């Protein structure tokens, strides 16, 4: 960090909130005008992808199996070398793919880009005794540190609280400072009571985020409302975070209780509990249905203001014309959210960003969710699937039930013939059939569609998710006499070993 980093944070905190909000409101009118003029319309659907990782010790230099898979900080120069972006924690690295047309060539380009860049990154990090891991929530802290020490470490720099292990992005650090900010940011989950003076606990989690850009911006509410209905069922297939680092659990709670009461996807609870502490209204939340595309713009404007940042408008990008609104969108955290952007008028776009899915065991599993989401966005509106008429409250209940219980959550769905069901076979037969229909409507052959969706079908057939695998591993180790710390650590090491053999070419279905 620079010597004047604390001063940079103070400069952000000094931004005039009322002036910032007024600029965001003016920007919203710019976006609405461009929407009416058709600037955000395109002749085709486009897909994109964000993929987050964390780094661990691969054991090369330490030679100590007890240190293998310990969390590692990624040097900033290393991120530049591998072409990844920084995220909240120093252990994080994020890849964003180039947007591609939603057709067979575009999907193959997405897959090829992820594989090419990730394989190169793995080669580069391996030389430093480091490995990038695709996982939802890390559980082994850096060697010689506890998770609570790593997450809570901070220094007071002339009245500014600076998280020691947080990336040097001013906005992240500003979240912990300011007169209206809470003293602590807690993680709230079954049998976990942990808090820190900064938002660093959010760095426990990593995700994948598919994007779907529709042809006509005015149709965004239809796609958005369908995305809310598929959020629960897709999350139930993707759950991958039942455990925390062992030292974060409450003292005096036995291991069997912790395992039995753990939710399947604690990434959801971490993100919500840490960041919602700082605002009067929940900013990390399951959003309401949209009626018009203008409503999507207004929601960002009306969202509770949180860390207004300085904005410059001297860039050449088209979306610099609404730069303050874009900046405010950066703290508009919803599990599904609309996005308006574009470097030029010709590339201006409106899209749906789908944020419920955690990082997955393999690349193919991760891209299966991208393909399934895009296929569903293509098929469900075209077929006028009746699930869009399912009450919003049911969609929300599905989402949080999936967070807690994964495939055992009793997801409620409306099939194509209008029948409501909670039978998981019927739910996923209909859901994945429409995902396949959307892929084939986009030009994929039946074989290509099967290739993309096979990892998800395998989970349905086996009734087994990555969270189930982790529970099985921990329970097995507890039965063999391990304490909770050894059981979770052993599970995580086994996860990373399995992944090292399957990340680029296999699927979770290959795991035993």
TrEMBL record:
SUPFAM superfamilies per UniProt: Glutamine synthetase/guanido kinase
Gene Ontology molecular function, alphabetical: ligase activity, forming carbon-nitrogen bonds
Pfam families: GCS2
PANTHER family from the UniProt entry: CONSERVED PROTEIN, GLUTAMATE--CYSTEINE LIGASE 2-RELATED
Stated name of the protein: Gamma-glutamyl:cysteine ligase YbdK, ATP-grasp superfamily
């Amino acid at each position: 960090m620079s010597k004047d980093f604390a001063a940079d944070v103070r400069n952000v905190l000094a931004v005039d909130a009322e002036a910032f909000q007024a600029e965001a409101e003016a920007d919203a009118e710019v976006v609405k005008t461009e929407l009416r003029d058709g600037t955000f319309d395109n002749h085709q659907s486009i897909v994109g992808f964000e993929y987050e990782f964390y780094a661990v010790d691969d054991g090369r230099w330490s030679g100590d199996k007890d240190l293998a898979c310990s969390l590692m900080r990624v040097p900033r120069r290393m991120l530049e070398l591998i072409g990844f972006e920084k995220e909240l924690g120093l252990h994080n690295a994020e890849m964003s793919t180039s947007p591609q047309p939603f057709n067979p060539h575009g999907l193959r380009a997405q897959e090829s880009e992820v594989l090419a860049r990730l394989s190169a990154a793995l080669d580069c990090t391996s030389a430093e005794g480091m490995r990038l891991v695709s996982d939802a929530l890390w559980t082994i802290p850096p060697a010689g540190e506890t998770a609570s020490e790593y997450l809570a470490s901070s220094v007071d720099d002339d009245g500014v609280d600076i998280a020691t292990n947080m990336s040097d992005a001013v906005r992240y650090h500003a979240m912990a400072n300011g007169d209206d900010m809470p003293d602590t940011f807690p993680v709230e989950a079954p049998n976990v009571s942990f808090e820190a003076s900064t938002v660093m606990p959010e760095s426990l989690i990593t995700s994948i985020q598919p994007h779907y850009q529709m042809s006509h911006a005015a149709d965004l509410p239809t796609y958005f409302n369908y995305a809310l209905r598929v959020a629960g069922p897709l999350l139930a297939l993707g759950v991958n975070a039942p455990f925390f680092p062992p030292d974060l659990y409450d003292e005096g709670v036995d291991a069997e209780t912790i395992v039995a009461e753990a939710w399947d996807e604690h990434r959801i609870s971490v993100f919500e509990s840490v960041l919602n502490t700082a605002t009067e209204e929940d900013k990390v939340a399951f959003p309401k249905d949209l009626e018009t595309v203008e409503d999507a713009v207004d929601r960002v404007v009306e969202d509770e203001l949180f860390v207004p940042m300085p904005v410059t408008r001297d860039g050449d990008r088209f979306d610099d014309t609404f730069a303050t609104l874009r900046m405010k969108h950066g703290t508009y955290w919803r599990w599904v959210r609309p996005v308006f952007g574009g470097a030029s008028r010709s590339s201006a776009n409106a899209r749906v960003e789908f944020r419920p899915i955690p990082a997955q065991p393999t690349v193919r599993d991760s891209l299966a969710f991208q393909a399934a989401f895009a296929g569903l966005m293509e098929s469900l509106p075209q077929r006028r699937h009746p699930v869009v008429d399912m009450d919003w409250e049911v969609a929300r209940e599905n989402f949080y039930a999936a967070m807690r219980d994964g495939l055992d959550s009793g997801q409620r769905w409306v099939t194509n013939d209008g029948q409501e069901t909670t039978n998981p076979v019927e739910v996923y037969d209909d859901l994945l059939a429409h995902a396949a229909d959307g892929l084939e409507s986009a030009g994929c052959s039946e074989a290509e569609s099967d290739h993309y969706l096979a990892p998800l079908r395998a989970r349905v057939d086996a009734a087994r998710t990555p969270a189930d695998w982790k529970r099985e591993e921990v329970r097995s180790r507890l039965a063999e006499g391990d304490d909770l710390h050894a059981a979770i650590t052993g599970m995580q090491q086994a996860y990373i070993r399995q992944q090292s053999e399957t990340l680029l070419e296999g699927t979770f279905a290959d795991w035993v």
